[in-house]
Amino acid sequence: MLDSKPLLFPTGFPSLTRRPLETLQVNLGYRCNQSCVHCHVDAGPKRTEEMSPSTIDAVVSFLRSGRPATLDLTGGAPELNPGFRRLVRDAVGLGVHVMDRCNLTILEEPGQEDLAELLAEHRVEVVASLPCYLEENVDAQRGKGVFDASIRGLKRLNALGYGDGVSGLLLNLVYNPQGPSLPPPQCILEADYKRALAERHGVRFDRLLTLANMPIRRFGSMLQSMGRFGDYLSLLKSSHREQNLETLMCRSLISVDWQGFLYDCDFNQMLDLPLMEGGRWLTIADLAAVDLKGRPIRVGEHCFGCTAGQGSSCGGALSG
């Protein structure tokens, strides 16, 4: 795989500083039951990295400090970590809102037969990947049969009350472009998704979150192989909007990798750009004693992926 990191520095991206912590995003491991072409984590079935029980204990210990309000669980497929269920239960027991970044097909994996019910029981917000509402596009990006399995997963979640607008069980979908282009306007695409999924499959959901593809790891390598890395980076930079700087996720989020090290965001995690103090990489065990507010955020050319056009974050578009 071609390394895009050397192409991202130095950078002219504006300097940023942190605000009070609101979201702890925890990567439970890089193992996944899928291998998607846009995946900036380079996750897949052959990855073995996995957060240990002791590091999960450290995450729970930090949550007991009263910060933050939201725990955002990601991977790979975070549910494949044996400690996923315990972490969900402990976090919810502490009054923390839990989000699960779910690829939907995981609901049909052996050993996950009761996963949907567990998520509903603990009122976990499901953020589900579905890069298109057309079967041929999804299967081209994620593998043959993935679209049908995803629709079955959505129907199963719907049957439990997810996305009905009444139960409070939140089901949001995530869209990524198929290639080196920016996402279309989120509100317009959301309306298309809702209409198509309801009419063709009887599926409902709450919101659509549009994310730009990051020029790092697997997607960055693909761009280089195609000879389109420079063009895509130029597109991101020419589409930069200053107003998106105010609501960037990295200003109020901390990313934790499977070993417990801390980063400003999930993308910096993939680029090995940790939070440091005194020349040492900070870990989740250090976080309760660290004052993050006002600390500089490590930026690179990839950050233009979050400020281009309508903006992009783990919560979707930043502006209209």
Strand/helix succession: EHEHEHEHHEHEHHEEHEEH
Work out the oligomeric state of the chains in this entry.
single chain
Helix content: 25-40%
CATH topology descriptor = TIM Barrel
Number of strands: 10
Structural class: alpha/beta
- How far the N terminus sits from the C terminus, by CA atoms, comes to 35 Å
In percent, how much strand structure appears in the residues? 5-15%
CATH architecture descriptor: Alpha-Beta Barrel
> Strand order within the widest sheet?
6-5-4-3-2-1-7-8
- Poorly predicted runs are none
Outline: globular
The domain tally reads 1
C-alpha Rg, in Å?
19 Å
Largest sheet: number of strands, sense, barrel closure: 8 strands, mixed
CATH class wording: Alpha Beta
What is the tally of helical segments?
Answer: 10
Mean pLDDT: 92
Question: What distinguishing features does this structure have?
Answer:
two-stranded antiparallel ribbon, single chain, 320 residues, globular, TIM Barrel, eight-stranded mixed sheet, alpha/beta, 30% helix
Structural features, described:
- The mean pLDDT is 92.
- The chain is α/β, with parallel strands linked by helices and 320 residues long.
- It has one domain: TIM Barrel.
- The strands form two sheets. The protein has an eight-stranded mixed sheet. A two-stranded antiparallel ribbon has the order 9-10.
- Helices cover 30% and strands 12% of the residues.
- The chain has helices spanning 53-63, 84-93, 115-121, 135-142, 146-159, 186-201, 217-226, 229-238, 266-270, 304-307; strands at residues 23-27, 70-74, 97-102, 125-129, 171-175, 207-210, 253-256, 262-263, 276-277, 280-281.
